[in-house]
Amino acid sequence: xxxxxNNQSFAPGASGxxxxxxxTVFRTQMDSVLLGxxxxxxxxxxxxxxxxxxxxxxxxxxxxxxxxxxxxGACKGEGFILxxxxxxxxxxxxxxxxxxxxxxxxxxxxxxxxxxxxxxRTKTVVESYNHxxxxxxxxxxxxxxxxxxxxxxxxxxxQLYYVISxxxxxxxxxxxx
Length: 177
Prior knowledge:
By secondary structure, the protein is mainly β.
């Protein structure tokens, strides 16, 4: 899997832990929260690259054939390879299980007083906005999630510094988190 670089940047002086001083600089404080936060891995659409094996199209089989006159093993006869891509951002992550009477659950009762689908709220740097809009899903705390609604750009004093997005659990465990 290819790790796609991103333009994540933090304000000078951000330390990676919550700033406890009486600093009035909003961005420095929030960047410190993000640096002390956890990772969110966004799964981006794959890159489509031409087959490296140099295969040729065979109209009889409607497939790409390799040098040994068999279906190309590198691209499985498709003529291209899909290369998975992902990128990782630091995020402030908060899991949310809403109570039953919430408007999103329609006010319906469920066993245990919780809705069945867990949601998670993330805050990342504004540079993540396009990646979030175009991603096919994310891994948050080792849990596969799908984007739930449109992400919102937010900031301070008219400047956009961060993106708030909500994700829905896909009920598939990944990794060991």
